[in-house]
Amino acid sequence: MTATEIRPTTDALLKTEAPKKPANMGQILRWMLLFLGGVAMVMPIAYMISTSLKWPHEVYNLKLIPDEPHIENYTYVLEDGRFYWWFVNSMIIAVITTICNVIFDSLVGYTLCKFRFPGRYIVFIAILSTLMIPTEMLVIPWYLMSQQFGWLDTYWGIMFPGLMTAFGTFLMKQFFETVPDDFIEAARIDGLNELQIWWTVAMPLVKPALAALAIFVFLGNWTAFIWPLIVTNSVEMYTLPVGLSSFGDEADVAWELIMTGAAISTIPTLIVFLIFQRYIIQGVVMAGLKG
Amino acid sequence: MYRNLTIRQKQIVWAWAFLAIPILFYSVIRFYPTGNAILISFQDWNLLGDRTWTGFDNYQKLFGDPVFWKVFKNTFVYLLIGTPLSLIISFVIAYHLDQVRFMHGFLRMLYFLPFMTSAVAMAWVWRWFYQPVPVGLFNNALAGIGIPQFPFLQSTTWALPSVLAPAVWAGLGFQVIIFMAGLRAIPRSYYEAARIDGVSWWTVLWEITLPLLKPTIVFIVVFSSIGFLRIFDHVFNMTTNNPGGPLNSTKPLVLMIYETAFSAFDMGYAAAQTVVLFLVLLVVSLIQLRILRDS
């Protein structure tokens, strides 16, 4: 008895000449419905992109393929300058925060996993407990701090709350469990110091987890809204989500231009997804099963 | 001096050296603000004047505020519709997608793609869809088949579900992937045994699949509940002309906090609301863990 008998696959079905059992019709139907559902799922994204390529006169018709696709909307929006700054701001903030998280979350995860020292358990529980505190509870004190230290309306002000996350730390700790202690012992005997062992021995062994963490942190900061909205005042310090929100709210902004702005803030993450699809799916599974 | 330490002592030194900056970070950026938020919730403060102690005044004001109860109800409506709806839809998709091999990766990508979008961008896209004729896509489509237009974001009844829809939509892909991983983790031998016994697929689903998926279900329920209780980006962006409107019918707790703190600058009152939000999240998560683990 093979696995395929228990779980018949449409793959096998569609390859063979004639369906043998009536159940096969069910398989085809299942595939069709899943396909239609999947198409419906991407429709909002498809309409966003299609509308960003349309001329004003065809924006309100339901056609998905523009009659004369053009990139005027993009040149218009980018020449205005604001979306260009917002894009740059978002990119700088997301990249720096990601690097910081990859370094510190893994360093803390590694220390909590591989070192034996008094206070280890308390530190672990303390960090884990911050998972239960919602960001919204902290924004008021963060705002007051930023006001006091002059961090309002600066990159540092936007970034500082997210430089380390308990989620990332916990994820990395779980993954360092898979690194055999023998490797670390061997490196110690070879005379490497602890910092070198972490960086050159342990880190390369958890690359898939690092990739997943990096992608999650990047996505989270790229799309972050409430804190950047609070901490920024001047238009040139906005991030893409904050900028898009204020842009859409201006009187008489054409919908095709809003869709263009929305596309500018969405397309980078879609590209990241298409390139790193496997890592991201794996990352979600890791986060779901181990996180 | 370091040289004279034993291996074990050296390890302790290294561990604390590695943890020094993170401990500073967590103390200053997580724990201190948490305490501060609780402290401010017992004070009256408009950012400019003095901070004065007012005891439980902010909480008393909150519980006597009809807007708060409206907002509290909305927040739970988001939770009580959003969580079961996304749980059921994502399970049905995952259950079927798991049994499909032909273009499996492609189908999975279609379902996952919305998860990679920005909530703000998609809120604006959906907001456009919801506009009345001749602007909005949905109403144009309805008009095309002769159905009168639907007041998505204008109606006090339908605005909340309309705002919730893109939030559910964006989260489905994530839950589908988690469910599929859970389904894959169920040992095949269980299904083989059931097949030999000639058990119907319905019984297999209820007696094998769902009970063994329990950890996955617990994770998804808790995770998505926290998300719906904290809904903000979608509501704020779909109702910027009248945040939380019409007539507060879509306003969730986080939006009320935002307005109290950063429009009205009533910091003490806003802090009291954040403490309530924290307690709501805590209690809901604990109840869910309790019920789902025991049953």
- Report mean pLDDT of chain B, rounded to a whole number: 91
Instruction: Summarize the amount of helix of chain B as a percent range.
Output: over 70%
Structural class of chain A: mainly alpha
Range of helix content of chain A? over 70%
What is the spatial order of strands in the main beta sheet of chain B? 1-2
How much strand of chain A? under 5%
Q: What is the name of the CATH superfamily of the largest domain in chain A?
A: MetI-like
CATH architecture of chain B: Orthogonal Bundle
Would you tell me which CATH topology of chain B applies?
Answer: MetI-like fold
Distance between the termini of chain A: 36 Å
SS strand fraction of chain B: under 5%
- Based on helices, strands and strand pairing, what is the structural class of chain B? mainly alpha
Rg over CA atoms of chain B: 25 Å
Query: How many H/I helical runs of chain A?
Result: 15
Largest sheet of chain A: none
Low-confidence stretches of chain B: none
**Average pLDDT reading of chain A:** 87
Q: Shape of chain B from CA axes?
A: globular
Keywords:
heterodimer; A: 291 residues; mainly alpha; MetI-like fold; 2 domains; 0% strand; globular; disordered N terminus; B: 295 residues; two-stranded antiparallel ribbon; 2 strands
